[in-house]
Amino acid sequence: MSLEPFIYCFVARGTMILAEYTEFTGNFPAIATQCLQKLPSSNNKFTYNCDHHTFNFLVEDGYGNFPEL
């Protein structure tokens, strides 16, 4: 069983992306910015599926973590 790689990952405070990583090309920062505007600020975990991608969010103490698989 092989693990799927992270396609894009970022850490944000509020709606500002503080750090990001990807080895792929794509519109990931634009998607991340749109998603950040819709996430609640409360501590929580969210998973969204869109265009055959899984988007996982972890919001904790005002910081958002977004690894996309």
Automatic annotation (TrEMBL):
Protein name: Longin domain-containing protein
InterPro entries: Longin-like_dom_sf, Longin_dom, Synaptobrevin-like_transport
Record domain Longin: where: 10-63
A single cellular component GO annotation: endomembrane system
Keyword NAD: no
Species, as recorded: Gossypium lobatum
Keywords: Membrane
Record-stated family: Belongs to the synaptobrevin family.
Topology versus the membrane: Single-pass type IV membrane protein
Location of the protein in the cell: Endomembrane system
Main location per the UniProt record: membrane
Classification via Gene3D superfamilies: Longin domain
Top-rank lineage group of the source organism: Eukaryota
